[in-house]
Design brief:
mainly beta; globular; 4-stranded antiparallel sheet
């Protein structure tokens, strides 16, 4: 069973930054795509950023382009999300997920393992 543990969430003012981390227990971490999703109260879970097993393939959703940056360290089995210029609308629970294949995707259906989430609150 794959375990994913997120960390790094918290409260920040608009314009601030946070770096989320996701530690995976799986020794095959490097073979699968990974992604960050978020879910705000009353809204559906949405894909934020994804990275393929081959780190050169990344994709970010339009609302976070040029502000959020996804990366992975396969030697440490860890996924990261650098979030800059945070906005109030970024407030949500953030989840990391491991894909069913090596290809990046922002579709919930393409992910088989999920972390418990870390909360991000952006407010003044």
């Amino acid at each position: 069973q794959v375990q994913l543990v997120e960390s790094g969430g918290g409260s920040v003012q608009p314009g601030g930054s946070l770096r989320l981390s996701c530690a995976a227990s799986d020794s095959t971490f490097s073979a699968y795509s990974m992604a960050w999703f978020r879910q705000a109260p009353g809204k559906e879970r949405e894909g934020v950023a994804t990275i393929g097993a081959e780190e050169i393939f990344t994709y970010r959703a339009d609302p976070v382009k040029d502000r959020f940056f996804i990366s992975r360290d396969n030697a440490k089995n860890t996924l990261y999300l650098q979030m800059d210029k945070l906005k109030k609308e970024d407030t949500a629970m953030y989840y990391c997920a491991r894909g069913r294949s090596a290809w990046p995707s922002l579709q919930v259906k393409d992910y088989s393992f999920w972390g418990q989430g870390t909360r991000v609150t952006v407010s003044s």
